[in-house]
Each structure stands twice: as structure tokens, then as C-alpha cells.
Amino acid sequence: MTKKDANADKIGIRNWRFKPFIALVTCMIILGSCSQSGMLEALGFRYSDPNETVGPDLLPALLPNFRAGDFYKFDDGAAYRVTSIDKNKVVWKIGTKFQFSTLRNIFYPWMSWESDSSRAYAETDGSEELWPLKVGNRARLEIKHFFFREKEGLPIEYVEEFTCSVLGTANITVSAGAFDTFKIRCLRHIERDFYVETIFYYYAPKVGYFVKTVKIKGPVITSTRQLASFEISLDSLSSEEQNSLRQMFQFALNNKASGEKTTWSSANGNQHSTVVPTKTFILANSQVCRNYTQNLVLDDREREFVGRACRGKNGIWKAP
């Protein structure tokens, strides 16, 4: 493995979605069949996060409305940034080079990706039956994958099936804050009969993305990932408005007591934001920090942030 490949593993470029595919498809090619245990699927059918409580009734959630520049960072170090959107296709970048694409329906696998040594793409009808999200919705999607162990040459082809259900709502606390979410369970199979794993997604409408994922095979939790921070694109604002918004944020943390609200509006009145400090505390190194909530409305998108910022030696408040 090259040094670059090793680094890719650390930040999730060699995505966990594809590793089980390779093993199962190889098994199917060599042996003609692989033993499957319905017990594994049954054991992974239920999951409840230790911090999870029953959430409130939520309005139906529309498909995520991404913009170039949206950014999501996770607790395992992976950081995804939207680079472009073309109808139902969203193109993302990890770091400065690695690029992949998804559907706007983010519960389904990557539609394309490429590393130094291999690449893959997928075909599907792009079913959106799960949306608008509401409790009780259920959808099934088939994806045909073409995996190239080498960039050139013949691909390994296989069909993956996702069956997803909206189980209910849940309030959950992650690194990025506390969120009301839809809890979605997706069962993954290859060639219909080969069970791969079960994935639980906690999708927060006020973030427009999932704030936690849990992957289970049988009784074993194979991995978890939670949102650490996120940003939405400010490209719809002029540079002057962006600076004004940042100044409002600094003013609120510098001057407002916990519980007091500071508001901001754009020149045309279509964009709004509020910041409310919620707690002030001092770290062991004597640095002053504050927790806060921020609501941001940009045209047709509304997002709510629950964050923490610390004051630097230059007096500027930044996320630690």
C-alpha cells in the first residue's frame, strides 16, 4: 500500500460501502454461492443509540437541497465538501483531490468514485420514493455497480439492493450538538439473497444531512460515524453581507449574555440569522469559550447550528 493509499484509509476515501462488495462478489465468482444467515440479518434489525430519546413529531422532510460549498466534517476525520450539483447528482470532494458523487437521496451508495489504483460507477433509476421523509415510509432501490480493480480492464459487475424504512423520530446528541432526527434503517443485499449489513441513519432536517450513522452485521456494531461540524454555502450573499454576518456573530459572543438574541438581515431582507449564546465557561488553559445556537435562513434553505467557539489571543471567536 502506498503512503497515499494509507492516508486515504484514514479519512474514509476507501469507503466502507465497497469493501463488503468485493469480498462477496469474489466469493460468488469463485464458489458460485456464499452461505447466508438469516439470523445475522435478524440480529441487526434493531438498534437504539445510548443517547437517543423519542423525538417530536416532525414535518415531512424534502430531499436535501445542497449548494456548492456546503461542508460536513465527521468525528473520524472525514470531511466532505459539495463541489457541484447537476439535477439529482451531487459531486463531493474529500481533501483536495479525491472526488465522488451521490444522489440527492444520501441514504444510498456512492454513484461514482476513483482512487489512484481503482474506480467504480453505478447505475440506478434514482428512486425517491422515501421522500418526503415521514414516519412509515418505505422504499427499495436496486443499483448496478461496475467495479474496476484497475482503472482499465473489465469490471466486476454486481447488483446491490437497498431496502429502507423510516422507523420514527429521535432526539440524539452528537459532537455537533443535539438534533431532532428521522431514524432510518436500510438493509443491504447483493444479488438480492446475500445479506451485507444493516445501516441506521439519523437524518436531521435542520442540518439537511445525517448526523449519525451506525453499521451493524448480526449482533456486532462494525462502525459508527457522527457529525462533528458543518457549514453551508454563503455564496448567495455578497462579500459585504458575508462580512456583516461574521461581524454579527463576533458581536453576539463578545457582548451578549447567555440567552440574549442578536439578529441580522441582508440588504434585500431575504436572508436572516440569529445567534444566542447559551453557556460561558473557561478551559484549563484559561481560554474563554461559549456554547451558542445559530439559526440561518438563506433564500429557500434554513439551518440551525449548535456550536462552541473559543476566544483567541487576537480576540476572535473560533471553533476549537
Secondary structure blueprint with pairings:
Blueprint: H1 3-11, H2 19-31, H3 38-43, E1 53-54, E2 71-74, E3 79-86, E4 89-94, E5 98-103, E6 112-114, E7 119-123, E8 138-148, E9 156-174, E10 177-190, E11 194-204, E12 209-217, E13 220-231, H4 239-255, E14 262-265, E15 271-282, E16 288-298, E17 301-311, E18 317-318
Antiparallel strand pairs: 1-9, 2-3, 2-13, 3-4, 4-5, 5-6, 6-7, 7-8, 8-9, 9-10, 10-11, 11-12, 12-13, 14-15, 15-16, 16-17, 17-18
Percentage of residues in strands: over 45%
Strand order of the largest sheet: 2-3-4-5-6-7-8-9-10-11-12-13
Q: What is the H-and-E element order?
A: HHHEEEEEEEEEEEEEHEEEEE
For the residues shown, what is the average pLDDT?
84
Category by helix and strand content: mainly beta
Taken together, the total number of domains comes to: 2
Word description of this protein:
The chain starts with a helix and ends with a strand. The radius of gyration is 21 Å and the shape is globular. 14% of the residues lie in helices and 47% in strands. It has four helices and 18 strands. It has 320 residues and is mostly beta strands. Strand 9 (156-174) and strand 10 (177-190) form a beta hairpin. Strands 2-3-4-5-6-7-8-9-10-11-12-13 form a twelve-stranded antiparallel β-barrel. The chain has a five-stranded antiparallel beta sheet with strand order 14-15-16-17-18, covered by helices on one side. The chain has helices at 3-11, 19-31, 38-43, 239-255, and strands at 53-54, 71-74, 79-86, 89-94, 98-103, 112-114, 119-123, 138-148, 156-174, 177-190, 194-204, 209-217, 220-231, 262-265, 271-282, 288-298, 301-311, 317-318. It folds into two domains: 3-231, YmcC-like fold (Beta Barrel), CATH 2.40.360; 239-318, no CATH class.
